[in-house]
Design a protein that fits this description.
279 residues, 2 strands, two-stranded antiparallel ribbon, mainly alpha, 1% strand, single chain
């Protein structure tokens, strides 16, 4: 069972009771974060799977994902300039996912309280007190996503050059040229940094905004503190998310219709383990 963090005296701010550097993010009224283990992460994932079985929403996600796939395929029929951005766009699910999952957090919250959990109830999140803050933080993620695409395209242009003439030409550029190898290394490194930023700032913040009427600042601070206090469990969670999105994206993104709801519900339960509910 997760317990409240009990740091040593040398690590502790007397007025706060949190380990440095998480203590510097503390503000009066902020909730306590708990120290959890990797077993808690696996338990949150198991609860996410259980929520998905009880509240299947894959049809909703298929209705969203199919048009996205259709747009990509249609664009490929008319030109190949979008090819360099397909991988960055697919990776963008990890950046935008926390915002699009807020309806899932609401369903998990309602299930905890034995309320109606029909899929339409996911829209009840629009009536939560923190909805304005949710949209504000969602706008921040949108800017992060656009920034990622801009940098990814800039790296492609700088390291490889112009528009590929065909799919095979593009694959040859990426896999068999020195610029392509540099692009794979640099692109994945930069993408990892973007994903790490989003993971640390949103692992708690979006579920917390669904759960409580708090400011964006408090939600982000609490999320960062939770990550700093639990680096190994949060790293494991990030790995689970990355592998889940990769596996879900392989069959033309359709697998995401199952992966995304499971990860969304599991994130809610991870939040419950990370943040003390007594305040």
């Amino acid at each position: 069972m997760a317990n409240l963090t009990r740091p040593t005296q040398s690590q502790t701010s007397p007025a706060i009771g949190l380990r440095w550097p998480a203590s510097v993010l503390w503000r009066d009224g902020d909730p306590q974060v708990r120290a959890i283990t990797t077993a808690d992460v696996w338990n949150a994932l198991a609860k996410g799977i259980d929520d998905f079985r009880a509240m299947p929403t894959h049809i909703v996600f298929i209705c969203i994902i199919y048009p996205v796939v259709g747009i990509i395929l249609a664009r490929l029929l008319f030109g190949y300039e979008i090819l360099p951005l397909i991988y960055p766009m697919a990776a963008g699910f990890a950046l935008l996912g926390p915002f699009f999952a807020v309806g899932l957090y609401e369903l998990s919250r309602r299930r905890e309280q034995h309320l109606d959990t029909s899929p339409i109830r996911a829209l009840d999140v629009l009536h939560r007190p923190g909805i304005d803050a949710i949209f504000t933080l969602g706008a921040v993620l949108a800017l992060v996503f656009v920034g990622w695409l801009y940098i990814a395209n800039m790296m492609y242009v700088q390291l490889i050059g112009g528009e590929p003439a065909s799919l095979s030409d593009f694959l040859n550029q990426v896999l068999n040229t020195s610029g392509g190898k540099q692009l794979m290394f640099a692109g994945n490194l930069v993408g990892f940094l973007f994903a790490l930023f989003v993971l640390v700032t949103t692992v708690v913040s979006f579920p917390m905004l669904v759960d409580r009427d708090v400011s964006v600042g408090m939600a982000i601070r609490t999320s960062i503190r939770a990550a700093l206090e639990n680096p190994i469990p949060i790293a494991l969670w990030g790995l689970i998310v990355a592998l889940g999105l990769l596996l879900g994206a392989l069959p033309l993104l359709i697998g995401l219709a199952i992966v995304l709801p499971i990860l969304g519900h599991a994130t809610w339960h991870l939040y419950r383990k990370l943040v003390d509910q007594s305040i």
